[in-house]
């Protein structure tokens, strides 16, 4: 339910605040597309404000925070913006008198990923330096201030809500997003392949599947669908383990191919580190 009353004479104007990594398309982008589509279907005039964001080094993270904080979304060319919906870090730093946050995730390197191999806030020895530690502590305060400006705070999962409560002492309500095209998923036969779907990032831990394929029976194959910086590493690993001939890497598949792959998989592999929500889990059960 949206805050504020809609005008009887015109459509309510809503801006969705999004963060984009160029050439990256995943769960967050699907969520934004679906949200915009659903709002438009309900006759709201909706625009997505999409700003590129670099997650490291720290100076660029600070620039991204400042950029969102300085944006004025109250009106454009005398067009009043009635509502802004913030999503993931740092979009919720935007100022607006009627801001609602649907939190995808915060800057995870400063929270639950701090001190892990998945955090950019560490040196080669795995330890934070003084600047990184200071930035992390400051960011907790910045997030708390900006998020509490929201009229309502929702998250995409109970896991995200738990983090928000643990680190920022902020209560929120999980609002689970439905999978895209959920009506098109179907059940087929159990095939002879293990399916992995998603971006090939270290935090997704797809290397565990590649390694595990060394130990499965020869009849079982692996199909890995996705792009990302780990693609070459995973391919080389498969060749080194002499299981490359049983693992197929697919950069892209059509929607219908993806439905078919899910429907006929022996099982679906999904083992990221402390995932926010995970469309893959939901899709694999449809």
UniProtKB/TrEMBL annotation:
Matches recorded under InterPro entries: Glyco_trans_1, Glycosyltransferase_grp1
Glycosyl transferase family domain residues: 191-284
Gene Ontology MF annotations: glycosyltransferase activity
SUPFAM superfamilies associated with the record: UDP-Glycosyltransferase/glycogen phosphorylase
Pfam families named in the record: Glycos_transf_1
Domain of life: Bacteria
Protein name per UniProt: Glycosyl transferase family 1 domain-containing protein
Organism: Candidatus Hakubella thermalkaliphila
């Amino acid at each position: 339910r949206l805050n504020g009353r809609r005008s009887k004479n015109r459509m309510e104007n809503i801006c969705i605040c999004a963060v984009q990594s160029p050439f990256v398309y995943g769960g967050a982008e699907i969520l934004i597309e679906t949200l915009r589509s659903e709002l438009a279907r309900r006759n709201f005039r909706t625009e997505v404000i999409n700003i590129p964001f670099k997650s490291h080094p720290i100076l660029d993270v600070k620039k991204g925070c400042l950029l969102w904080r300085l944006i004025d979304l109250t009106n454009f060319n005398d067009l009043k913006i009635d509502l802004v919906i913030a999503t993931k870090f740092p979009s919720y730093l935007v100022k607006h008198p009627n801001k609602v946050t649907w939190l995808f995730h915060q800057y995870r390197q400063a929270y639950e990923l701090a001190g892990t191999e998945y955090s950019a806030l560490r040196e080669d020895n795995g330890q934070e330096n003084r600047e990184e530690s200071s930035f992390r502590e400051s960011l907790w305060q910045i997030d708390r201030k900006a998020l509490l400006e929201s009229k309502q705070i929702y998250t995409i999962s109970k896991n995200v809500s738990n983090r928000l409560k643990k680190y920022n002492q902020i209560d929120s309500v999980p609002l689970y997003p439905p999978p895209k095209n959920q009506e098109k998923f179907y059940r087929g036969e159990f095939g002879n392949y293990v399916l992995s779907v998603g971006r090939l990032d270290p935090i997704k831990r797809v290397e565990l599947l590649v390694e595990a394929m060394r130990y499965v029976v020869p009849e079982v194959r692996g199909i890995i669908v996705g792009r990302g910086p780990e693609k070459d590493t995973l391919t080389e690993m498969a060749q080194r383990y002499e299981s490359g001939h049983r693992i197929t890497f697919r950069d892209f598949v059509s929607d219908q191919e993806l439905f078919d792959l899910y429907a006929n998989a022996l099982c679906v592999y999904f083992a990221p580190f402390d995932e926010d929500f995970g469309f893959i889990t939901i899709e694999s059960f449809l």
